[in-house]
Amino acid sequence: MKWIRLIPLLLVSLVACQSRQTTQPTYIAFTGATILDGTGASPLTDGVLLIRQGRIVAVGTRDQVTIPENTQVRNVSGKTIIPGLINAHGHVGDVKGIEPGHYSAENVQDNLAIYARYGITTVVSLGGDKEESVALRAVRDTTSHGRARLYIAGEVINGNTPQEAVAVVDQNHTMGVDFMKIRVDDNVGTSPKMPEDVYRAVIARSHELGYKIATHMYYLDDAKKLLEAGTDLLAHSVRDLPVDDEFIRLIKERNIGYCPTLTRELSTFVYEDTAAFFTDPFFTKAYDLATISPLKDPAYQQKIQNNPVAQTYKRQLPVAMQNLKTLAAQGVPIVFGTDSGMPARFMGYFEHLEMQMMAEAGLTPQQIIESATKNAAAYMGLKEIGTLTPGYRADFLVLDADPLADIANIRKIADIYIGGTEVEAK
Ligand SMILES: [Zn+2]
User: Fold this and answer.
1) How many angstroms separate the alpha carbon of residue 126 from the centre of ligand 1?
2) Which residues belong to the signal peptide in this entry (predicted)?
3) Residue 87 Cα to ligand 1 middle (Å)
4) What are 71-80's pLDDT values in tens digits?
5) Distance 237 CA to ligand 1 centre (A)
6) Which of 16, 212, 307, 396 shows a CA-CA span of 20 to 30 A to 121?
7) How many Cβ atoms are within 10 Å of 375's Cβ, its own excluded?
8) How far is residue 72 from each of residues 23, 200, 401, measured CA to CA in Å?
9) 424 C-alpha to center of ligand 1: Å?
């Protein structure tokens, strides 16, 4: 008897399970926040960001966006939503703590997880990328939970002759890279510089194969020649001289991105002393005392003080900062990058330090955010990221304070989403 009575109950609970399944929310709406969509448009107040299956469905004010029935609503009133930040010049996989030489698939993923936890949702690694990272690239990898999306440049192209260097381009192509990268620099007179016929051949071959090519450079004269030769990104600041009209004309005419990497300069000399940021809780949340202790060693600090190369970079940093200000004012596209992921260039933290230095150079919060969102995606050719646009990937940050009021507010991260999935703070 008892069993017979149970049957209707079982049926009811089965039906309940089924109906629960069908009413499960397929959409998530973030409501009430101020939304900066990254395009440069005015902020939306009382905005709605509607996402579904990792992609953005709609962005607008409450009146503009219809919230479908099967929606999980998350009230984020009082917060600001911005696109996930893109580092267009980083490196991944080699460094653990401050030590190089740890390249592995696991370390690539660990590095990308550090970036992600600081709100850097995409990293373009401009060189030093090995085979292990190919399968982890943003274009192939669909399970990027908890770590930044990755694009790679493979081996930094070098060679004494055009033939030698072009062979490296072909090797990168065979490996399956997203970008090419060369260095045209003598490291303040300490090493030979790639000759013009070599870099011209490398740029031509890269374009022939359909790649954009980024160039590490230092001197104004080289930067002009590289623009003329067809480089697709100046991957550092011009640091020897103030930029002139000819340079501005060239870079604007060709519509090429300029990636200042001010923290790269800082990293060359800042450890001549105990770096102020070592006690910043935003730094120590990811980097512990044991990691940084070699950088606090007085003998090491003395070495930096006595290193003429480091001291040259230090002396030239104000030139780089002034050039950034001049170029931004001229409307040259500034593409956000740090050159972090090298020893003692701390992934994640350095991106926030870079934004602070860009502000010190005279850029507005709006200009800085655009450089790390829209510009980074557009000038690196990254698809479906960079702005909060319907159809794009749901990579975004929920901030506790308004970054337009003070760029330092971009550190006040409440939540980070990559492909619509929340990045767990560790
Ligand atoms: Zn670099």
Assistant:
1) 6
2) 1-18
3) 11
4) 999 999 999 9
5) 12
6) 212
7) 24
8) 11, 54, 24
9) 28
Cα 334 to ligand 1 centre (Å): 16
Set out the domains of the chain in order of their start, with CATH numbers: 85-382 (3.20.20.140)
Give kind and range of the element (H or E) at residue 226. Answer: helix 220-229
**Whole-number Å distance between alpha carbons of 205 and 226:** 15
**From the CA of 154, how far away is ligand 1's center (Å)?**
12
**C-alpha 356 – ligand 1 centre gap (Å):** 20
Sign of CA dihedral 182, 226, 186, 215: negative
| Gap from CA of 215 to ligand 1 centroid (Å) | 9
CA of 35 to the centre of ligand 1 (A): 32
Q: What is the CA(298)–ligand 1 centre distance, in A? A: 27
* Percentage, residues of the chain above pLDDT 70: 93
What's the rounded Cα separation, in Å, for the pair 284 and 262? 21
Q: Dihedral, CA atoms, 293, 299, 304, 307, nearest 10 degrees?
A: -150
pLDDT of residue 426: 62
How confident is the model over 157-210, as pLDDT tens digits? Answer: 999 999 999 999 999 999 999 999 999 999 999 999 999 999 999 999 999 999
pLDDT value at residue 17: 45
Residues 6+ apart with CB under 8 A from 297: none
Contact 278, 259 (CB under 8 A): no
Q: How far apart, in whole angstroms, are the C-alpha atoms of residue 208 and residue 200?
A: 12
Which residues are close to ligand 1, an ion, with C-beta < 5 A? 126, 339
**Beta carbons of 72 and 28 less than 8 angstroms apart:** yes
Closest CA to 334 of 296, 306, 298, 362: 362
Burial of residue 384, with CB atoms counted within 10 A of its CB: 0-12 exposed, 13-18 middle, 19 or more buried: middle
pLDDT number for residue 23: 60
Residue 213 Cα to ligand 1 midpoint, Å, equals 13
Distance CA 38, CA 51 (A): 17
Per DSSP bridges, beta strands 257-258 and 233-234 are parallel
423 C-alpha to ligand 1 centroid (Å): 26
Strand partners, 234: 215, 258
- Give the helix ranges, DSSP H, for 159-214: 162-175, 196-208
Q: Dihedral of CA 348/386/109/210: which sign?
A: negative
For residue 71, the CA-to-ligand 1 centroid distance in Å is 43
